[in-house]
Design a protein that fits this description.
Layout: E1 3-4, E2 19-26, E3 53-55, E4 61-63, E5 131-133, H1 141-146, E6 153-155, E7 158-160, H2 172-182, E8 193-197, H3 203-209, E9 214-219, H4 227-234, E10 238-240, E11 255-261, H5 273-281, E12 282-291, H6 297-300, H7 308-324, E13 327-333, E14 336-341, H8 345-350, H9 416-436, E15 447-450, H10 457-460, E16 468-474, H11 481-486, E17 490-494, E18 507-513, H12 515-519, H13 525-535, E19 536-547, H14 548-560, E20 563-568
Parallel strand pairs: 8-9, 8-11, 9-10, 11-12, 15-16, 15-18, 16-17, 18-19
Antiparallel strand pairs: 1-2, 2-19, 2-20, 3-4, 5-7, 6-7, 12-14, 13-14
Length: 574
C-alpha cells in the first residue's frame, strides 16, 4: 500500500495545521514474490509496544520503531470477530455464536496475517468473476458439497464459477432475467442497491453488476467455509454477517431490493423477527425476493424432504406475516415470489392498534441504530416527514448519484449546499489521486474501501472506473450512511477499534481521511494499521490523509509492517 500526506487545514486544529497525505504500498512480499519458506519473510520477534509513543517538542506524535512478526500459518484466514476458535463460548440460540464477538484487548494479535502457502496475486477483473486461484481460497468442502448445484468447480490450480446456485443450477443469468420480468425497475435504473442474505459465492450479486446494481452479499462464517472470501476474491462486494439477534450494520430504509435464494433463514420462526429486520433495511417501495421453500411448493415439495401440507402451511404463514408487516405480494412466477414494502402510511397506522402483531415500534430505539443493537420484535415504520426516501421518489440511477438526498438535512451541518460542496471537492481530489496512484482505474484495483466516509464523495468520484467501494461510517461519527445509500452507493457501520467483518487479503485500496485526528483518543493507531494490513492484499495501496501531528507515527508503524510509504502534498499544495 502506498500512503500519501497532503497539506490541508483540519477542522478543530490551529489554522496552520497541515494535513499530509501518506501513500503506502503493501510490499509484504517484495517484488510480488510470495515465498512459502518461512525464513524469507519472518523477522525478529520485536513486538513490545508499551510506551512506544510520545509527543515531541516539535508538536508531532513520535513512535519508537517496532517490527511486527508474522502470525503462524494457522491464522492465514483469521477473522478476529468471527473466529471459529471462540464459537463455543457463545449461545446456539438463533445461531448467535456466528455474530460478531471480538476478542478482548489482551487477546489481540500483534502480528501480520500470512497468506496461504502458494498464494498468488488475484486474477484481475472481469476475468476474476469466473475464476480464482485455488491456493488463494484453499477450501475443498464447498466444492464437494455444492458441485452438483454448479456453485463452483475445481480444475487444476483454479476454481471456476459457472454461475449456478441452489435455485438456479442452470445459471444465474436466466434466473435474474426472470426476476427482471417480474420487477421492471431492475432494468431502468430504479433499483440500484441490493442485499443478498445467505449469498453462496455471490453469483447473484455478480450478475447484477452488469445490470448497474450494487449488491452487498452477506453470509456468516459457517460450515460453507469461505462464501464471503470467494465473493471478494472474485471482485464482488461482500461482508461477513448474519441475521440473528443483532440488527445488521445498515441504516433503515436503505436497500432498494433484498434477496434470499434458499438461504435457509427460518423466516416464519421467532414471530417473524428476521423478516422485521429485512423490513427495516428496505426502503419504502423496495422489493423482497424469495426463491426456494415454500415458494412453488405445489411442484417442489417432494424434493424438500417434507409434505405438501407442511409447505402450504409455511407459505400461508409467510404470506400472513408479510401482510401484517405492510408488505404486499407484487409478483410471482415459477420459483420466484416478490413482495413490495408499502409506502402508504395507512397500513402502518393500523399497527398502532394495541392488538396488532407485530406492533409498530415506539421511538425508544433509533431506526438507524445498528451497531450491536438488538433486533426488536416490532415494525420500524417509515417516517412521514421524508417525502423523497421511497423508491419511487428517488431519481433513477445514475442521476441519483449527484442529487442531494433529503436525509442530508438530518446530519449536523448537513444541507444541499454542503453535500454539493463535498461532491465537488472529491472530484478535485480524485484527479490528484490519479496522479499519485496511476493504478486507479486499471485492473490492478477492484475492491476498494473508504474507511471513514462522510457522504460517499470518494466513491462517487470513482464510479466510472471498473471497481466498487465499501463506504464505512464510524459508529461514533455523525450518521451519514443513509445519505450514502440514498445516492445509490453501498456501505456499513463499523467501529475501527475492532476488526472489520471480512477475511484477510480482500481489498486492493484503503482510503482514510482524518481518522486519527477524529478517533485516536479511542482507537490505538497500531491496531487500526494492523487491521488494515490484515485486509489489504499484497501489492495493495492505502491512502491516508492526516494532520502533520500523526504523520511520522503512522509512517513508523507502517514501516514495521513492511509497507513502503511516502509523503505527498495534498491537491492544495501549501
Amino acid at each position: 500500500m502506498e500512503n500519501h500526506f497532503h497539506p490541508i487545514k483540519v477542522p478543530g486544529q490551529s489554522p496552520m495545521a497541515i494535513l499530509f497525505f501518506v501513500l503506502c504500498g503493501f510490499s509484504f512480499y517484495l517484488g510480488g514474490i510470495f515465498c512459502s519458506e518461512k525464513e524469507k519473510y519472518v523477522t525478529d520477534d520485536i513486538t513490545e509496544a508499551v510506551d512506544t509513543t510520545q509527543e515531541m517538542a516539535t508538536g508531532t506524535l513520535q513512535t519508537k520503531a517496532v517490527t511486527f512478526p508474522v502470525c503462524s500459518i494457522e491464522y492465514q484466514d483469521y477473522t478476529p470477530c468471527t473466529d471459529p476458535r471462540r464459537w463455543k463460548k457463545y449461545s446456539l440460540h438463533r445461531l448467535s455464536f456466528l455474530e460478531r464477538h471480538c476478542p478482548p484487548v489482551f487477546e489481540r494479535k500483534e502480528c501480520l496475517v500470512p497468506p496461504p502457502d502458494g498464494y498468488k496475486l488475484p486474477i484481475r477483473w472481469p476475468k476474476s468473476r469466473d475464476e480464482c486461484w485455488y491456493r488463494n481460497v484453499p477450501y475443498d468442502w464447498i466444492n464437494k458439497q455444492k458441485s452438483n448445484q454448479h456453485w463452483l468447480r475445481k480444475e487444476g490450480e483454479k476454481f471456476f464459477f459457472p454461475g449456478g446456485g441452489t435455485m438456479f443450477p442452470n445459471g444465474v443469468s436466466a434466473y435474474v432475467d426472470l426476476m427482471q420480468d417480474l420487477i421492471p425497475g431492475i432494468k431502468d435504473g430504479t433499483i440500484r442497491t441490493a442485499i443478498d442474505t445467505g449469498c453462496g459465492v455471490a453469483s447473484w450479486g455478480g450478475d447484477l453488476l452488469d445490470r448497474g446494481i450494487l449488491t452487498v452479499s452477506l453470509a456468516p462464517r459457517d460450515n460453507h467455509e469461505a462464501q464471503v472470501q470467494f465473493a471478494l476474491e472474485r471482485g464482488i462486494p461482500a461482508i461477513l454477517g448474519i441475521i440473528s439477534t443483532q440488527r445488521l450494520p445498515f441504516p433503515s430504509n436503505s436497500f432498494d431490493m433484498a434477496h434470499c435464494s434458499r438461504c435457509l433463514i427460518p423466516w416464519t420462526e421467532f414471530g417473524g423477527i428476521y423478516l422485521l429486520e429485512v423490513h427495516r433495511i428496505l426502503r419504502p417501495g423496495g422489493f423482497w425476493v424469495l426463491s426456494g421453500p415454500p415458494v412453488n411448493y405445489e411442484h417442489r415439495w417432494r424434493g424438500w424432504n417434507t409434505t405438501i401440507e407442511d409447505q402450504r402451511s409455511d407459505y400461508e404463514k409467510l404470506q400472513e406475516l408479510l401482510t401484517s408487516m405492510c408488505f404486499k405480494l407484487y409478483n410471482k412466477k415459477d420459483d420466484i415470489a416478490v413482495w413490495q414494502k408499502l409506502s402508504d402510511n395507512s397500513c402502518y397506522k393500523k399497527l398502532e392498534n394495541p392488538d396488532s402483531y407485530p406492533p409498530k415500534c415506539d421511538d425508544g430505539t433509533e431506526p438507524d441504530s445498528a451497531w450491536y443493537t438488538p433486533i426488536r420484535p416490532c415494525v420500524v415504520s417509515p417516517n412521514p416527514k421524508y417525502k423523497k426516501v421511497a423508491l419511487k421518489s428517488l431519481p433513477k440511477w445514475p442521476q441519483r448519484l449527484h442529487a442531494a438526498p433529503e436525509r442530508v438535512s438530518d446530519v449536523r451541518g448537513g444541507s444541499d449546499g454542503a453535500f454539493n460542496h463535498d461532491d465537488s471537492k472529491w472530484k478535485t481530489r480524485m484527479k490528484h489521486y490519479n496522479k499519485l496512484i496511476p493504478a486507479i482505474g486499471t485492473d490492478k484495483i477492484r475492491n476498494v474501501m473508504d474507511m471513514n466516509t462522510l457522504y460517499g464523495g470518494f466513491a462517487a468520484a470513482l464510479t466510472d472506473y471498473p471497481l466498487w467501494v465499501m463506504n464505512v461510517v464510524s459508529s461514533y461519527a455523525a450518521n451519514t450512511l443513509p445519505v450514502v445509500y440514498d445516492r445509490g452507493l453501498i456501505g456499513t457501520y463499523h467501529d475501527w477499534c475492532e476488526a472489520f467483518s471480512t477475511y484477510p487479503r480482500t481489498y486492493d485500496l484503503l482510503h482514510l481521511d482524518g481518522f486519527f485526528t477524529a478517533e485516536s483518543h479511542r482507537c490505538e493507531a497500531k491496531y487500526v494499521l494492523l487491521e488494515m494490513d490484515r485486509i489489504l492484499r499484497p501489492n495493495g495501496y492505502a491512502i491516508i490523509r492526516e494532520s502533520s501531528y500523526f504523520v511520522d507515527s503512522i509512517a513508523t508503524i507502517a514501516k514495521g509492517m513492511r509497507w513502503g510509504c511516502r509523503k505527498e502534498d495534498t491537491e492544495y499544495r501549501f
